[in-house]
Design goal:
The protein has helices spanning 2-18, 86-91, 113-121, and strands spanning 21-25, 30-38, 42-46, 53-57, 61-65, 71-73, 98-109, 130-144, 150-160, 168-178, 183-192, 195-208, 211-220, 224-226, 230-234, 239-243, 247-249, 253-259, 262-263. It is mainly β. The protein has 2 domains: 2-73, SH3 type barrels; 86-263, Porin (Beta Barrel), CATH 2.40.160. The strands form 4 sheets. It has an 8-stranded antiparallel beta barrel. Strands 4-3-2-1-5-6 form a 6-stranded antiparallel β-sheet, with no helix packed on it. A hairpin with a 4-residue loop joins strand 1 (21-25) and strand 2 (30-38). The protein starts with a helix and ends with a strand.
């Protein structure tokens, strides 16, 4: 009688084991469980019929072979695909990124004391108002907005007038803003043989690959200067008379500058 009971329990235990579901994990391990529920993110199961309920992330489970013979295979963890956009990556720049490149252009010198001083310095009666320009632009982007627009600081040293045998150095510092489409505006101080002045720049940049090609129009307005009044001695009247100061204008400068930029770091 005892042997019959033992044999019955053995077959009952075998049936219970066989009635379990086999869960295969993505790391290759297998678990004999009783699956209770499968949600979009979790699989809930018991290890024994009267045991506690466990939960596991569905992304860790490869498949479940149910006791009824059916099998359920779970898809791989969804992958997020990031499409590389070189234009956006280059435009959305960290402040530490720097750009630079050569510049070439022409400048028109308006009539004024600047042209007179240049002609006098080089012993010329006059100079051609159109002069060539060669230089380099150093650009640092100081902030970038979510839409790709950015603020920048530029330093542009130039040498002009080489085609006339002149050597006219200048340097400009510009604080500017560039939109995502490449339209840019800027303003800043300028230092040249004419003295210290103000420059205003506007233009657009066109991007091909990782190289940017800017075209800019730069304008420096007239600066009006008036000499101080002076006292001059009149020998006829034996008195001093006050001579009012003389007003003069520096003459405006208008430049068209093109070139290209490449990333430095």
């Amino acid at each position: 009688m005892k042997s019959i009971i033992t044999l019955a329990l053995f077959f009952l235990g075998s049936f219970c084991v066989n009635a379990q579901d086999v869960m295969t994990l993505k790391n290759g391990a297998q678990m004999n469980v009783f699956v209770s529920e499968v949600t979009p993110s979790l699989i809930k199961f018991k290890k024994t019929t009267d045991g506690p309920m466990y939960s596991m992330n569905l992304v860790e489970v490869k498949s479940v072979a149910y006791h009824d013979g059916s099998t359920e295979t779970f898809g791989a963890e969804p992958k997020i695909t990031i499409t590389k956009n070189d234009n956006l990556k280059d435009d959305l720049l960290a402040p530490s990124k720097r750009y630079g490149g050569p510049r070439i252009g022409f400048t028109y010198l308006g009539v004024g004391t600047s042209r007179e001083k240049i002609a006098e310095a080089f012993n010329r009666g006059d100079i051609t108002p159109w002069i060539s320009q060669f230089g380099w632009q150093f650009e640092t982007r100081i902030f970038t907005l979510d839409d790709g627009a950015c603020g920048l600081v530029e330093f542009v040293p130039m040498i002009g007038g080489l085609e006339q045998g002149l050597f006219l150095p200048s340097a400009s510092g510009i604080l500017g803003f560039r939109t995502r489409s490449g339209i840019e505006l800027g303003v800043g101080p300028s230092l040249s043989l004419s003295g210290v002045g103000l420059v205003m720049a506007a233009g657009a940049s066109f991007k091909i690959g990782k190289v940017t090609f800017p075209i800019n129009v730069v304008f420096s307005p007239n600066i009006t200067k008036t000499t101080a009044d002076s006292d001059q001695y009149d020998p006829i009247t034996n008195t001093y008379i006050t001579v009012p100061g003389v007003e003069s204008k520096s003459g405006f400068r208008l430049s068209l500058v093109v070139g290209f930029n490449s990333r430095k770091l």
